[in-house]
Amino acid sequence: MVDHEREFTRAVVDDFVAEYAAGRTPNPCVRCNEQVKFGPLLRRARALGARRLATGHYARIEGGRLRRAVDDAKDQSYFLFAMPAGDRGDVLFPLGGMTKDEVRRHAARLGLPVADKPESQEICFVPDGDHAGFVARRAAPSPGTIVDVDGTLLGEHQGIHGFTVGQRRGLGVVARGEPRYVVSVDALTRRVTVGPRAALARTAIEVEDVRWADGAPGGPFNAAVQVRHRHRAMTAQVTPRGTGATVSFAAALESGAAPGQAAVFYDGDVVVGGGWIA
Length: 278
Known about the structure:
This protein has helices at 5-21, 28-37, 40-47, 100-109, 131-138, and strands at 53-54, 59-62, 65-68, 91-92, 144-148, 153-157, 181-186, 191-195, 202-212, 221-226, 234-241, 244-253, 262-267, 270-277. The chain is of the alpha+beta class. The chain folds into 3 domains: 5-109, 3-Layer(aba) Sandwich (Rossmann fold), CATH 3.40.50.620; 141-197, SH3 type barrels; 201-277, Translation factors (Elongation Factor Tu (Ef-tu), domain 3), CATH 2.40.30.10. β7 and β8 form a beta hairpin. α1 (5-21) packs across α5 (131-138).
């Protein structure tokens, strides 16, 4: 057994708490893959003389390129965009070429006790799904205000860590007419702005700390851009800018984009790069 609890706590758990406290929506799975599974763990495997590290991710590495899994419903390439290019040759994703049903059948044939194990969509270190409670127990959230898009005061909240862009439920305000969604979260003023779904629409976003799969492109290029794990990738033009990029969508992103979430760029099923929504 290899104990990486310290690295996991620093790189994943502490980052998760700090991001929510800063009014952003973190993606701990990306951080874990980048800084734990394909960092310390891979170095440990090499030190032991292992030729390859195999994991259960639903993704593929073919021709040195990271690709989506065969099973679109289980694809996890979105969480793997930050994997260093130099690690791809030492990693195996044996499940990437199979569907979930095929994997279960193989497990049953081999007599594995997890063959019919129910799936979990929760974050591993927040098994009860109470993200806000987890953050509140580790940070010191301060109250603030909830306002409408026109600035009208609607109520108060006990901490911005309980809100994310696009959120509809649990806002703590009474909907008047059409439903309201979180449009923005301001950490400096502790102000949460809500509004109608139309207020979420974005035609462009800025992405920071971009990791390119094979070096930064020389100029703008077209790609399919995914801004959440369960979100359908949308056609966009990506323009590299320093260490970041500007993403201009061909059609408005109607569900909004939460700062702190990953935006991943695809050419077909190949991951071109990705970064964090600013």
